[in-house]
Structures are given as structure tokens and as C-alpha cells.
Amino acid sequence: MTATFLHVPSSQKANKTFLDFAERFFNVHVANSSSPITKTVSAVRRKSTSDIVAIRDMVRYTKQATISTSLIHFKSEQIINLACSAFKDICKIVRGETRPDQEDYILRSIFEQCFKYDELTDEIFCQLARQTNGCPIDDYLIKTWDIFAITSSVLRPSATLLEYLKNYVSAACKAPGKIGEYAKIIKRCLGKERIRPKRTIGPSTLEVESIRNLQPLLLKVHFYDGKTKALALDYTDTVLNTIKKIREKINLKSLEGWALYEEKVIDHHQRHLQDDEFITEIVGAWQQQGSAASSKTASPVYQLSLTNASHRLIFAKRIITTIPDIDCDPVELHFLYSQAVYHTVDDDEYQLPSSTCIQLAGLHAQVLHGDYEEENIFRYTEVDSFLCKRVLDSEARNWPLEISLAHKKFGNGKKKHEAQIRYLSLASQFPLFGSNHFLAYYKGYWILGLEILIAVNKDGIKFISLQQTEMFQDIAYMELESVIGDTDNRTITFLLKNCVAGKQKCFVFELNELKGVCQLIDTFLPNLIVWEKSFQDNKSEYDWLKLNEETDLCRKKLVQTGTARLVRESGIGFFRSAIRRLSRRSSEKLPTMQDSPKKDESPVRNSDSNQNDILPTKRDCWTFTKNPLRQSITKLDGDLEEEALQIFTWLLMYSGIESASALEDNEPFSLVQKILSEIMQNHHLCNELYLQLIKQTMTNNPESFSKVLSKFWHCLIALICVRTPANDLIEEYLRLHLQRCSIHKHLEEGRFASFASICLSRTKHSYRLRKNVPSKAELKAIASRKQMELRVFLQDGHQLVFGFFSDETVDQLIRKITSRTGMRPDAEGLGLYASIESNGSREEKYLLPSEIMADMMCEFEGWMKTIRSSSVRLSLKKRIFIEPYANLDDPVEIDMLYHQSVTDVFEKKIPLTQEDAIRLCALRAQTECGDYQHFSTGSYNSVTRILPRPIRDLIDAQDIAKLHMELVGLGPQQANEAFLRVLQDWPLYGAKLFGVKQTTLEDIPKKLWFGVGQIGVHLMEQEGQVLQKN
């Protein structure tokens, strides 16, 4: 059977056949060539193009198992090699040269490369279309169509190729047998409107086997009543499509508030599935996680089943605003009731009182068994189906009898639906009913533990402590000023109104399900969520063309004003000139291949087309080159021009185009630092470097992105973070370049340009110039297009990780810390300290608020290199103490000052009497352990550790116990305040102490503390803590 589908019906659009696409965008191939370069040179020498493969043959089946180069033209040699390797692997699968258990593994490897390199996707589709056109061997043909169908389910071709591919597949749908069925699957996958541009996870075994067997995707959906339903899904179905099919399956009248969850079987953690997620991608992620977790699995073979052993789908009510009444949908009432019973009995999510649980157990018994019958007491023996484990373990009681009495009192005589409605009404009176729980980590001071659950329902936000397993904070929506979501740092900030008394005003959490929390809050109270500002607006293709014109005009101004000049590349070599001559001859023989595509048919993943010269400049003088420059782009004199050419050579070395073996230091980031250090003191070189990097990041083909181009983007962003152009025209040229590139946000180039635009805006508005080159940590963050991360240690031992931009100062970072910890915004006297270990001791340095934090990071690297230390530790402290020292209405500031004072006591910076030491230990015990409960003598060993070692032996535990008994009823914050008042009795409390040596006086020790405080400066002995001088 030989099937050809090159021609489409006349009713379809003209010039949309696969052959038309090949004539416009395919490479020139040479017949019988094992080495493309050798054959190209031979063709040039013979001055003949008779061996060039005709385009019509390029879209037909070939029996060769290898190709000399990619079908579509790519700039990157890596992409070309991947395309050739993919064709070879596909041919091996088609011809049966691989084991059956290896086929899926090879296909997943190809798909992973397509996820990584988006431009490779069109190449794979073209290869499969070629091998399905005119294949004479039936088995090979069916196998190739099978791979074609799997690929179309996973990958998405570019907008340019899509129309051509649709027409090709539409013609094949009329073919008999499996070919026509496979073609119909492909047509559905290509024609389905995709909400997301592409998948990121390969196909599961379930998906692959379903396509091969030409069967729908079968999945099992679980319900809270213990039942399951099997669904037949299409490969393009989203979660929303699946929910609609579930509705039809169970005869549910309304889908309002219903959702689909995925649940891990091990820990029962549930994640709400977004409506636009693909079911095939979700199942693929399950298999991927199961494969990664199982280290014993040696081969990529997985058991085919309706569901995955580690995950399952659950259909549940997500948004509960009202309780059903008598006239409600009985199906919805049944599933909502089953959900409430599960969260009351099985996982105890609602945390109801024991008395209420017993009452609900009686109603549940009425639903299960009908009216009460005294002789059937055996119905209640399975008590764990009526009451949760917490209630059963609370006390030893005759629970079957308790449940039977509750059934008789609360449930007897009620109809089934009446008992269900009463059950829901009773449970809904408690704050956690109908809530969705999200695991979060608190970013700040908290005695309740950093790991909590955020519960969201129709009434407001609740915080649940995992340590104490109980709700400790209930915030109504009306008490919230705003909710701020930060997608970059995955944090959510709850800001309370000032009128809310007796509560902390700011809560910051980090969580993985940020989008789910914000969407749920927005459902209950719209317009409350505030997202971090986006620096990019949506732009159309028309904007891109307009920016192209503005860019060309700006180039013209650069030349006309003498700011820049046209530059030529160095010698291009024999091979490149030979290929160019071959291309000219090929164009004469095959003129249709060089036709310019129409504007609406411009290929997204095609190579740069030759552009007309724009007077007085030429585009190739302003775009990417792999060759060194003959002259600088700006007009420089003598030594500066030589230095500019050397800088461009270093750029080529950093990108990998030129060898960097000649450098003493082969560390790539060191090379970037060297380049930036050269231009920081000379604005002429700064302007030159900007034009060089704009040239190396300028391409007319944004999708042919490579690691080489990414290296030049790294350098450009690093330069932007250090200096802006000194020339206004060059700055305008840079701005246009970034705007033009950032239009394609879904591409790597667009992402780099968007991040560069943010950095440019921040650097331009920074009131202080950088004094140091970027550190290696900053350059790594730039390469990842992320903010730098900094770990700050708090006084209670906790640590926070903060993200910051290159222009942010120490003072701005302190404000972030206070915001994240929930401290009041006007807190004063705080300072950031950097300490580094040297020769067994730790030296501490105060960071000036006006210093740029990125500059300090560079200095830290210098310190660590000099003294060979592994890290620098940053900590936040109270630096300036002015009465009343702290705001007693701010519990966070009190807690920070308390822990800082504990450290000062241990380091002997505050003198203590024996009575003061005993009182401090008693207050510490009250804070940590609560009220006195007949502690043993050894129980106070932990609290005496806050004292200096020489004083510990002087303290009797019985004295601590006596004073501890007098503190009954004192809360943790009150105990901390009392702790601080004891220390404040010392007249020099709050003075900053510096270790000094004196050599002038003999009657006092040489080692002293030099203290600077509110009332003056002081000298004090370090050992005896005796005040020597005021």
C-alpha cells in the first residue's frame, strides 16, 4: 500500500500543501552525501548542482535511515545534530530495530529535546509527514502513523506549519483502515483549541497504549462516598472537559462550585486541578513522579491501568456558599453530604467538638440504617465509621452505646435527605466547614512553628498550626486591607486593616499553590488580590513591525551623528564562502525555494531571510556574528579601539565561539567580571560594549535561540545592572531593542529581554552608581533571570531567604525583612550585620543603609577568597537603643529584642547580679514551658544556658522554681517584656560595645569594652564587667 497525500481538495486554501511549505522553508539537500560539508565543497568545485535533491523528493518517503542535515534550516549545529539523531531513532523504531520496551523510552527522549528546544518540534513533524507520504511497506507506514499520532498528542507545531499540516492530515483521513483512524486522531489534536501553548511532560504509558490501540483514554474518578466511575476521555481533554463528562455520568444538574482534585495516595495531599490543565499531562506527571521515586525500576516499562497506584482523581465540591434545602438536587446533596462525612470522620479536617461529633454520628446512622431499632445494636460496632480518631482516643467510653443513643435522640424519625441536610447545617456552624487547606511556611517570627495550613472558605482566612493541630487565627474578609501575591518568590502577604485591634497586621507565607489560594480568595471576595506589578504589556505583531522600523531609524541616526559606524567582519574562510556560492547557484536552479513568504505566512521557526539594505546602514552590520571585528563600532582613538576589539574577543570566548585556553583564569564568570571592570571607569568603552552586545543579541529569528545567544544576553543584562549608556541615542537604541525582543514572551529571547527591561528601569532610577562589578552569585542569578537570593538569620535562630534586584540598598532590604516578619513598618534602629569566621573567631561588620547590596555581595566574595572562608552570615539586629527602646504594641519587635538580649547576656555584654540571673531564668522558663508544673531540678538546665558559664554554677534550681511559681498566668509576650525590664535596670542597657585595647593606663585592664549609648560613651572591663569610665 502506497499512500500519497500531497494534494488537497480545491475547496481548501491554495498554497497550503506540505510541498508548498517545503519549497519555502526546507534546506538544500545533496543526494548520496555522507558529509554535507565535503559534498558542498565538491559541488562548488564541479560548478554543478545536478546532485541537489528536488523539493518534491524531500517530502516523500526515503528508505535511507539517516539524513545529512535537518529538513528545516537552523543556525545552531546542536539543533541540526538533534534533528538528524531524531530521524535515525524514528527509523529504528519503524523498522523494528529496537526492543519493544525501548520504544517509549526513545520517544520520550525525543519529546524532552523538543520541550527544551522548541524549534525542533516542527522538524519532527516534517520528518514524520515525509515518512508517511508514499511509504511502500505497510508495516512501516502504520508504525510511522502511530508515532505521528503520539507526537501530535504531545507536541504543538508552530502557527506557520499548522495550516499545512492540517491540510496534509485531512487528506489522509479518507484512507482506509488504521491510517485513516490515526489521521483522525491527529486532526483532532491539531484542530483542538489549546489554551496552553505546549506541554512540558511527555506521554504516559496509558496515553501511548490508548493511541496505539485506537481507544479512548480510560481513567477512574473517585468520589467521597467510596464509589468510582470510569471515564472515556479524548487525548485533548482538559480538566474542564473531564468535569463536564463527570456531570453527565452522574446526572448532576449544576457544576457551580465543583472541581477535580488529584490526591497522593501516600499522604492524602490534594491539589486542585486548574480548568485548563490537560488530563494527559497530569497522568504523565504521575508516571514521571512514580518513575523518579522508584529506584528499583530498571526499565521504562509501566503497568497499564485505569489509574495510577500513587495518585487518583477525586471529584468534590470546592466552593460551598450555601447549604442545600429540601428542594435541592438529590445528586448534589448526596455527594456534598458524603464529602462532609469524610472531612468530619475520616480526616477530621473540620475539628468539631466531641459533643457535636456524637450528634452528627446519630444523624449519619439515620442516613445509613434508617429509624432506630433497639435490638440492632450491632449496627454501631464499627465506631470508626461514625467518629474520628481524635474523639475515640480522647476518653474510654462505650462508644457503640453512645452512637445508638445519639441515633435515637437526633436522627430517629427523619427522612434520609432531612438527616443529610441537618448534618450539613450543624457542621456548617463551625469555622473550618467547607474550607480548602494549603500547606504554607511562615516567613518571620512565630512561636507556633513555621509550617502551617492556610484554610480558605466563604467566611475568611484561617491559620492552623501543624504543631498543635488546631486553628489559632481567624481573619474575616472584612478585616483584610489587601492580599498581595508574588509569583516570583511564591509568597502571599495578608495585610490587615488598622482598625483591627489586638492582632498582628502583616502575615507573609511561602507556598507552592499560590495561584490556587489567590483564585479561591478572589472567588469569595473579588478585587481583593493585588499581584506584583508586571513590567511588560501585551503587544501585537503590528507593534513588532513598528519597533523594527523605529530600530532602523535609530541605527540611521547613530551613523549620521557619528556615534557609530558600519563595521565589517574579519575573513569568513573558504568553507563559508563555498556554501554561499552554492546557495546562489541553488537559488538559480530552484527559484521557488527562495521566494519570500507572505507577511501572514512568515514562519516562526524559520531562518533569517535576506533583508534589503536600509540606507545608510546594512542589517548584517548590526546583527549577530561569530567572527571578530576589524574595527570598533563607535569611533575610538588608538589604545581604546584596541581595548574595544579585545573586549569583543573576550565576549566570543565567554560565549564559546572562540577558545578561552589563552586566559589564565578559565572561570566563565571571571571573564565577565574582567570585561565589566574595564568599562566601569570609561564611558566610551561602556557605549562601545553596549553596541557590541546589542549586535550579538540582535537576530531576525527569535526562535532559533541557542546557548551562544544566551551567553551574550547574560553579558548585556549584567552590563545594564552596572551602568546605563552614557549616550542618550545609544540608550534609546537599547530601549527599542529590548522592546522589540520582549514581544515574543513565550521564547527565550523574549524572557531575557523582559528581564533586561526590568533591570534597565531599576538601574536608571537608582540614585547611586555601582562601585563593584557583579559577584558570581549575581551573575548566576542573571543567567537564570531571577533576583539574587540572600539568607538572613534572625535572632531566634530562624532564617529567611529574600530576593532582591541589583539596585536595591541595604536599607531597602531591611524594609523587606520587617515586612516579611510582620514588624511594624516604622520600626527604627535596625541594622544588618555581616559576620565572617576568621582564625577561629567571627568578625562582624555593620552594613551602611545606603550601600548597594549587590556591591556588598562582591565584597563578601573578596573576603571569602582572602581568608578562605566558606560563607558570610547576615543577621538583623537592633542597633540604636533610644527610650522607650521598643514598641510594646509590636510583638514581633519585642520578640526580636528579647532574643538579641539573651545573646548579649550569654556573651557577658550585660553585667548580672545573682538575683537578676535567677529572675531571668524563671522568666525564660515561663516563656518556654508555661506555668509551673512541679518541674524536677534538672528541668531548668535548659534555661540556665542563657547565662555566662561562670555564673551558672552559682544558681540554684530551687530558687528558680520558687520564682517560677510566682509567674503563674503570665503569657509568653508578657514574660519577654518582664525579661527586658530586668535588663533595662542596668544604666548602660542598649549601648553598643566594641572590643578595644588600651596601653596608656596601668591600673585598669588592657582589654576593655568601648560602649556607645544614648547618654554617652563608656569604658568597661570585659571580664569583670566593671565600669571604668563614663
UniProtKB/TrEMBL annotation:
Residues covered by the FERM domain: 217-535, 788-1030
Region (Disordered) residue spans: 586-614
Polar residues biased stretches: 604-614
Domain MyTH4: 62-212, 624-783
UniProt protein name: DgyrCDS11718
Species the sequence originates in: Dimorphilus gyrociliatus
SUPFAM superfamilies: Second domain of FERM, Ubiquitin-like
GO cellular component: a single term: cytoskeleton
Pfam family, one: RA_2
CDD domains: FERM_B-lobe
